[in-house]
Amino acid sequence: MSIWGKIIGAAGxxxxxxxxxxxxxxxxGHAIDKMRDxxxxxxxxxxxxxxxxxxxxxGAKMAKAxxxxxxxxxxxxxxxxxxxxGEVKNVARIFDLAKKDIAGFEAYxxxxxxxFGSNPAVLEDLLDGLFHIAKADNIYHPAEDQFLREVAAxxxxxxxxxxxxxxxxxxxxxxxxxxxxxxxxxVSAADLKSHYRKLIREHHPDTLIAQGMPQEFIDVANEKLxxxxxxxxxxxxxxxxx
Length: 242
Fold this sequence. Notes:
Mean pLDDT: 76
Shape: globular
Strand content: under 5%
Number of strands: 0
Structural class: mainly alpha
Number of domains: 1
């Protein structure tokens, strides 16, 4: 079943609690009958639903951060989600509900951190999706930067981690490959290879799907892999020329 079908059926049996569950309840028209908020709880369907609704909710809150939603951002949102034509209205409804919801973005981020805290690569790819939306209009607004910085902190990422993730989105010609990979400039060849292989394992789409990322978000994972591979290739070429 598509993740969108699972979301629509969530109120009929899938257990998603907390503020994200309430958001689904508002969408479905009645309350969720089972509540599971704790880290690691819930089956694969629950985790995938929570991840998906979480990105929609945080995307909606981020759209309010700079005070405007552009057509480019809407298109980027649809790219990240791979929304089937028949589900556009349903996703738009959840997006609008999240914008109006009295719950702050912190509540959504905290629930996601609780469920995926042991899988930081999943949370990192969630941030990557939000960055993709934020930069779609070619204006990375200071309010969006502050929003993403705070979400990253709730997810447990350090300032250095946030800088590394952000660096991967400023453009291949400007980004520092060492920052993108999170390694010092004097890293040995052996340590570089070991760290690179670790990142590839952590961000491989199959690994992330097994940890809770829905199939519909596969492009986010592939984009992350491309950034990692590009950074590694640039370091290798740089060292060959030096």
